[in-house]
Write a structure and sequence with these properties.
The chain has 387 residues and is of the alpha/beta class. It has two domains: 3-303, Arginase, Chain A, CATH 3.40.800; 315-386, no CATH class. The chain is 29% helix and 21% strand.
Length: 387
């Protein structure tokens, strides 16, 4: 496919730059698809940015204007590590219908994934997550994904794909391909307990805002195993992000959302990061656009420092821990990287003829729970899912 046919070139005025030299500013250190410099030789890039100015299915419209405003703030930031070869593809050409946009987004992301290019999506409304999901589904292999949201966007079972109800159409599709779904940062008063129970009954995971804020490192193993992340700017408290579709006095701080974004960027398996529901007309002095841009910058910075490591590929750099449990037939085997201090555990997949093992990312806290004769939730969910 020719991605140039799917994208409108970037058409921004030169962003105001008051404190960085032209040599240091980000927009001078990436390749930008403009009318004068069209796309070419995509395979040489590591990361691609694409805006999607689509919000026709949103109850509160206006986020279609967001991509260029976020892009303008991003361009004014300091350059990221030059090892990360980056291209801005411009904005996706929206279709005659929202469904057309979903499928166009699917095609572009699928092409980029097959080229091993990481993708940053500037939304637009969060129902665009559906288009990202379709791309991963087309790869026809198991994957996990995560959302960062103050709500669980489940809606009702017969809802169409909308920002408030896109999860049901996703979770009801080819279930054999979705290994796990996780939501980070939901606020209990915005969530039906029945939706939480539904996710847990299906071996998915949701962490309350308080759980994440008490130990933000809990999100790292979840994001390390995710294929893509969908970030709803509504998950940030209103004082830090006033320009969003459903503002709330509670939520993540700006610093926390940037830290989570960097964890996402560091994950070698995470190949798509989308940011959605920024509402320009509700913003104050581009504060939310600036935070959105900084979150993306931290994702890019994390991506530039990725380290490929896995217990089965380089066993010499891992320390192995075996924990026996009084109430289980299986030991829980943990691995700790001696280079990054990251943790994994083995989950047995038991079949009639043989047993194989799957490695799942975890934390030191999971290891300590196992040592205290508790079965870590991540291990138990994975075991039940696989057997």
């Amino acid at each position: 496919m020719n991605i140039q046919d799917y994208c409108d070139p970037v058409a921004l005025d030169k962003p105001a730059n008051l404190h960085l030299s032209d040599k240091a500013v980000l927009c001078k250190n990436i390749y930008i698809n403009t009318p004068d410099t069209p796309l070419k030789d995509l395979d040489r890039f590591d990361l691609a940015i694409i805006g999607v100015p689509e919000d026709r299915n949103a109850t509160v419209t206006g986020s279609a204007e967001a991509p260029d405003l976020i892009r303008n703030e991003l361009y004014q930031l300091f350059r990221v590590n030059p090892k990360l070869r980056t291209i801005d593809l411009g904005n996706l050409k929206c279709g005659n219908s929202v469904q057309d946009t979903y499928f166009a987004l699917r095609d572009v992301i699928l092409d980029l994934l097959e080229r091993k290019i990481t993708v940053v999506v500037l939304g637009g409304s969060q129902d665009l997550t559906y288009g990202i999901y379709l791309a991963y589904e087309k790869l026809n292999r198991k994957f996990s994904f995560a959302t960062i949201d103050s709500r669980l966007d489940m809606g009702i079972i017969d809802d169409h794909v909308k920002p408030e109800s896109y999860l049901i159409p996703i979770l009801s599709r080819k279930k054999e391909l979705l290994f796990s779904y996780s939501n980070l940062g939901h606020q209990t008063y915005f969530v039906d307990q029945g939706d939480v129970d539904f996710l847990r009954d299906n071996f998915h995971q949701c962490l309350r805002l308080g759980e994440v804020r008490s130990d933000i490192g809990k999100v790292e193993p979840i994001l390390r195993d995710a294929g893509f992340v969908s970030l709803d700017i509504n998950s940030v408290r209103q004082s830090d992000a006033p320009g969003c579709t459903h503002p709330s006095p509670n939520g993540f701080t700006g610093e926390e959302i940037c830290q989570i974004s960097r964890y996402a960027g560091l994950s070698p398996s995470l190949r798509c990061f989308g940011l959605f529901n920024y509402l320009p007309q509700a913003d104050q002095r581009q504060q939310t656009a600036a935070l959105a841009a900084q979150s993306i910058w931290y994702f890019m910075d994390g991506a530039s420092h990725r380290k490929e490591e896995h217990p089965h590929s380089a066993p010499d750099i891992f320390k192995k821990f075996i924990v026996s449990h009084n109430d289980m037939d299986h030991d829980i085997i943990f691995y700790k990287s001696l280079e990054t201090d990251r943790w994994w555990f083995e989950v047995p997949v038991i079949r009639q003829t043989k047993t194989r093992h799957v490695f799942i990312s975890c934390s030191m806290d999971d290891y300590q729970k196992a040592c205290n004769q508790e079965i870590p939730d991540r291990w138990l969910n994975a075991f039940q899912k696989l057997n």
